[in-house]
Amino acid sequence: MSLVDYTKFRLKPAEELRGTFKQVNRIFILSCAKCYKIFEEENEEEYTHLLDILGEDHKKIVGHAKIDFLCNNFLSEKRILNLDLSNCDSVGVNSCGLGIQFVAKLLEGKPVYALADSVWQSGDYATEIGYHGVSLEEEKCAGCSQCYLNLTGGICPITSCAKGLLNGPCGGATDGKCEVNSSLDCAWVKIHERLKKRGEKFTLESVPIRDYSRPSLKLRSDLSLQNQTLRGEGFYGGLHPLEKKGKTADKKIESFPEPKIAVIFLSQHAGRRATPSVRVGDEVKVGQKIGEADGFISSPIHSSISGKVISIEERIHPAFQSKDLAIIIENDGGNKVDPLIQPCKDFENLPKEKLLEIISERGIVGLGGAMFPTHVKLSPPKKKKIDTLIVNGCECEPYLNGDNRIMIQHPKEIFVGIRIIQGILGVERIFVAVEDNKLEAITTLNKFLDKSSSVEIVSLKTKYPQGAEKVLIKRILDREVPSKGLPLDVGVVVSNVGTVFAIYQAVVEGIPLFQRVITVSGENLAKPGNYWVKIGTPFKDIIEYCFDKKGEKFLEEYELKMGGPIMGISQTSLDSAVIKGTTGFIVLRKSPVKVSEERDCIKCGRCVEVCPMQLYPLYYSLYGSKGEPGKAIKYNVEDCMECRCCESICSSKIALLSFIKQEKEYARSSNKA
Amino acid sequence: MKTKSKLERVLESGQFAVTGELGPPQSADPEVIRRKAKILKGNVDAFNVTDGQTAVVRMASWAACLIGKEEGLDPIVQMTCRDRNRIALQMDVLGIAALGINNMLCLTGDHQKFGNHPMAKGVYDLDSIQLVKMVKDMRDEKKFQCGEEMAVEPRLFIGAAANPFADPFEYRAARLAKKVAAGADFIQTQIIYNVDKFAEWMKMVRDRGLHEQVKILAGVAPIKSVGAARYMKTRVPGMDVPDSIVERLQGVPKEQVSKEGIQLCVDIINQVHEIEGVAGVHIMAIEWEEAMPEIVEAAGLLPRPKFVTS
Amino acid sequence: MLVVQIKPEEEILPKISSKRLFIFECLGCQEVYFPTKEVEKFIDNLKEEIVGKASLDYLCNREFVKEYIEGYSKQIKKAQIILVFSCGVGVQIVSSLLEDKIVYTCCDTLYLNGFQGLTVQEFNCDQCGECHLNYTGGICPIAQCPKHMLNGPCGGSQGGKCEVDPDVPCAWQQIVDRLAKLRRLDKLEELVTPQNWSVGLISEPPVKRLP
């Protein structure tokens, strides 16, 4: 594999640099850490070389900063404005033309000097600018906007022929080599050979003259503006994956058939695993407690069916992907409900301690996927004053529609749930955040909103991961959760809308958490949809019911994700079952290319473009692959929220999350030490 | 005298010079040029032939100049950088000089999008200032742009254009200085309708002493119709046509407009004649060459000086 | 940054009439721009039999394309024509890996400002090899002026706008303004000599090929 080094610039000739330095007294140097070359080491600038050239004049340098991807305006501006440039009379920039122009505009009023020349990228023969792709391959495209590849067997005449001939060859090729540079093949000879291989011929028609007015300036500036608007929406970074919600957005929530055997895990929440409070052989009813919370940060487990406990054993846990304890219950078909489940009419008058007790007893945890025990979240330490509640109805992952349908079908209950939480927290301001791809949900909520209440429905531009807590808080309240901090540090509690509904059910209807809405969607599904599914329903039941083609080869050909397709956890066993944090069940045909730790980073800069936490993920890859996880700490790996934007867009398909998890684990254990 | 140009002699003698302009045909017909040249003869010291004006294909300037020369006039060939790279430009300079044409106006060229072949590739290997320098070095250093020497140099009187009305206005005089430093012998300005602005520009030019280093010919033109006035106001790049001009033409009956348009031109000639530093006028009666004799006479610019050609 | 537009139907349909098709669709630069709806519509309207379709990102990565070709080898074998929706780089790579198959592109590629690949930029750089930004106050005359004048402006600059398009600012107006702010208008006094357009041919090879 011959990869090209597409370094975009090199230091100007020595005399020119010395001449520039004669004009300055105190100069600050900014160096771009380069792009589009294999990322092998951190120090890519030629700073020492510059110092060598300057000799005595190097004393005029009052400071130096290395900036990754200088042309990433948003992040570079932050970095540069944080530097102390007060005691320099000029700034020297070692980067390609983009970086220099950007800095010159940013620091208008201060002389900015180019210390580097941009380098021609098109190789040693083309007289036309050719652009490489998001890769280090040799093939380039001139962006002529009138693609000739269909006439030339897939070899570009503009970037491969020194004269850019469209009706080549000229008369100058000798032995198949170009007259301009004899080490290069004549493009038209290659074209002729390729067409022969395909059984095609040179077209006999004269290829018309190139239209140099294309692409039009207007088209280019329209698309550029469109892109900048798209990227800048709502927050820095993020992605716009294909939504694929159309399949299930309009599907009313149906009841999924009860499982014959329920596999109910004892760990369905953050914190300590629940301890079993039943034994093998016991008869249990629907809603009966079968596991006791172990401590404050824990949660009880309830049975979702009536029947007999046939085993308490370890199964592959869908979130941990390792074995964990579960209670196996055989359904007796009787649907007998635990008599302790009673609606509460007088809930409006209950004190907050009682409400918290109910929420805790009924096993309510965060249903957005994190499964944090709700009673803990709603009991912030006294010194943290909470002034705002944000109800998260964003559901920003593709395919998922569970929260969407709950908002459409149960708006009244949601508002009751909100009132309950408001009573507990004593907040004045409440926002319900919904992405703008859920028009029906927004309209429904607005219809049922009591205008006099302090609840505001906020429609947010759809962009992944708008629904992430920290992103949401910044977007709605313009508050930044401190590094390694929590929402309560800035006076906010964020609660998933499904959790709010579960709170309503727990308090008003007395129902503990033993079922939830999940979206089953993806490819080759006969029955995609939104279902009320009993906790403990084995995954193979769902496949049986919803999937079109059956067979044991399922896990070989299909990727099964619990959750959404981006942050969802890949499942290795169909014996795993639905837990409280299962938001979705996504079936996707396996791709021939998977993320890998073995691939090289090519410094394309896209991970930095999309990270909502404004981190530099390429360093996680660098140090991960070098086996130096500790070095990632200085690049703030602990602030990563594992949204996988970087991994999704990585042009080399590097297993970034795997590296990040290793590095975070390392940071955690070295913090403890 | 650097060249055999009659224009150069007139300017050197301190007399107020008059140059005219001729638009070549959009065809291969030489008679059009002969006819127009005959009208200009005796009314101008030299005449320009435009080169692909507004990027519309017309007969090449040098060819039309040759035909005009055969009619006994002193032509000024115009060369733009839009259509030729430095190789072709230098080749044409040698050929033009060999044909006995004595004057050349060096321009960057209107962008191809304005013309009838908007899909053409614009070359722009050089810009107008680099072109001026290149021709000057060919003439005075006998060197090609690459540094190689030539045996017989092209003796061309070198002109450049100046647009007092283009932006950035404050920079325009500085840019003129650059053209002068590059070697321009004479300047022809863009058509002047806003005399006040032109006077402002001339002041900036005089403050730099440029009027003593280069001969400035003020560009003027009669207007045939109200429509033509509006067209120039809105569609021609780099033109400043004040509303008062349009109104003046609108204020007369239709049959009188062209006569008024000629008078307008004469008035402006008289006004610029009074401005210090203006060495002559460049009258661009494009597609209306018949008006030239009338304009020149009414402005008191006849007879044109005669020299014994060496 | 390369992005694509769909070619007019008349250019493609006659070439693929009644043939069995395999489709490669690249979504790699989706975050920049990809005409998803038009491509979907185009494919839906095809009357020809589609024996397979691979949607992937980064068709410009040869290794990935190789894996996909292997993974879809049965369908590709059945296909008479491979249709590709991607920029010119992707099409060339697919063509080079399927040399005996007829590969057609359904897209025209154009270039948005931004040097290459990183992201769409406000600025552009034409890789000229002799950075002029030192005397223009950091505004590029080659990339921003349609006539790439080095001793601009031309006579068509009006109201700070370029004669080519009234929405486009005149680069030289911006340069003069910027230098005026820096009180360095003197930088424009010296004649800038003609550009060396042959940097690709005579300079030392800027690109190093790794073994």
What features would you describe in this structure?
The complex is a heterotrimer of chains A (673), B (310) and C (211). Chain A has 673 residues and is α/β, with parallel strands linked by helices. Chain A has a 6-stranded mixed sheet with strand order 10-23-22-26-24-25. In chain A, helix 9 packs across helix 12 and helix 19 crosses helix 21 (656-672). The longest helix of chain A has 17 residues, at 656-672. The radius of gyration of chain A is 30 Å and the shape is globular. By secondary structure, chain B is of the alpha/beta class. Helix content of chain B is 40%, strand content 15%. Chain B has 11 helices and 8 strands. In chain B, strands 1-2-3-4-5-6-7-8 form an 8-stranded parallel β-barrel, surrounded by 6 helices. In chain B, helix 7 (195-207) links the parallel strand 6 (186-191) and strand 7 (215-220). In chain B, helix 6 (169-182) packs across helix 7 (195-207), helix 9 packs across helix 10 (257-273) and helix 10 (257-273) crosses helix 11. The model of chain B has no long low-confidence stretch (mean pLDDT 92). Chain C is an alpha/beta fold and 211 residues long. Chain C is 30% helix and 19% strand. Chain C has helices at residues 9-16, 36-45, 62-71, 73-78, 88-97, 141-144, 171-182, 199-202, and strands at residues 2-6, 21-26, 50-56, 81-85, 102-105, 107-111, 161-162, 165-169, 208-209. In chain C, the strands form 3 sheets. Chain C has a 4-stranded parallel sheet with strand order 3-2-4-5. In chain C, strands 1-6 form a two-stranded antiparallel sheet. Chain C has a two-stranded antiparallel ribbon with strand order 7-8. In chain C, strand 2 (21-26), helix 2 (36-45) and strand 3 form a beta-alpha-beta unit. Chain C starts with a strand and ends with a strand. The chains are: A alpha/beta (673), B alpha/beta (310), C alpha/beta (211). Chains A and C meet through strand 1, helix 4, strand 6, strand 7 and strand 8 of A and strand 1, helix 3, helix 5, strand 5 and strand 6 of C.
